[in-house]
Amino acid sequence: KGFRRMFQMGDIDLNDLTEARLPLEISMVRLAAQRRTDDHIHRLELQQAILENEQADVESHLAADEAFHAILAEATGNPMFGMLLESVQHLRHEPYRKHYDDYQLRQAHAEHQAILQAIRDGDADAAEAAVRAHLEKFISVQHDGERVEPTGAGG
């Protein structure tokens, strides 16, 4: 509820949200690279297949993106990462949907592929570099001042 209240007050924009995700997701992928199982890899590959499907609509891509990051959180073996990630996932859906175009969908696919490969290889440093590039790229292309409006329950 605290996150939702902050966003409803308009004190946080999309850039704030993405910047806050960066250290969380860096920690997540470093641990996921070390602790992932074959099942995690298989499930990440399934989501990646959706992300690379140019016929899939934006909603399918966003759902696959969210699932991909949720699987990374699960692969850490620490349930706190899933709880923290879930608390911000629903806040980003609507603004991300508004900003995703075909180029960004293809770019996100390539960025997720690099993350997946690093996780598959068990390479924490490469995983960190890939997720950093992924989120920093999004920060660089988003519209400054875009307000984040929560969708759904949680937080």
State the gist of this model.
With 155 residues, the chain is an all-alpha fold. It contains seven helices and no strands.
Structural features, described:
The protein is an all-alpha fold. α2 (14-35) packs across α5 and α2 packs antiparallel against α7 (124-141). Helix content is 77%, strand content 0%. The protein has 7 helices and no strands. The longest helix has 22 residues, at 14-35. It has helices spanning 2-8, 14-35, 38-51, 58-75, 79-99, 102-121, 124-141. The protein is globular and about 35 Å long.
List the helices and strands and how they pair.
Layout: H1 2-8, H2 14-35, H3 38-51, H4 58-75, H5 79-99, H6 102-121, H7 124-141
Helix pairs in contact: 2-4, 2-5, 2-6, 2-7, 3-4, 3-6, 4-5, 6-7
In sequence order, what are the helices and strands, one letter per element? HHHHHHH
Q: Which structural class do you get from the secondary structure elements?
A: mainly alpha
Annotation field: number of helices: 7
- Share in β-strands: under 5%
Q: Describe the largest sheet.
A: none
Shape: globular
The mean pLDDT is 81
Number of strands: 0
- Give the uncertain stretches in residue-range form: 145-155
Radius of gyration (Å): 15 Å
Helix content, binned percent: over 70%
Task: Compute the separation of the termini in Å.
Answer: 5 Å
